[in-house]
Amino acid sequence: MAAEKDNSDAKNQFLYDENNPFVICSRNFVPLYRCQPLYKCSFCRASYSEGLESELCVRCLSDIQNWQKCIGIENFNIKQLNSFQFKCVMIIN
């Protein structure tokens, strides 16, 4: 209980600019700011830092062939797609 009251042994220190929009890398948990190169899983839309493109997605385990390179924050809501549009997105990506 003492550790909960005292934050001195907090292991995860996040260094980020709260005024600059960002997404979190799903593998390294670092902020990825707008206009910064990143990779997104085409299936679950998880974001990854550059250099992790040879990894498997930690959320859905898809491979790199399904990933797409992006720049910055992408607004994409898969719930708004109907099944035909979803299949087209998967084939194109």
From TrEMBL:
Pfam families found in the cross-reference section: COPI_C
One GO MF term attached to the UniProt entry: structural molecule activity
The Coatomer alpha subunit C-terminal domain, residue ranges: 2-60
GO BP: intracellular protein transport; vesicle-mediated transport
Gene Ontology cellular-component annotations: COPI vesicle coat
Domain of life: Eukaryota
Protein name: Coatomer alpha subunit C-terminal domain-containing protein
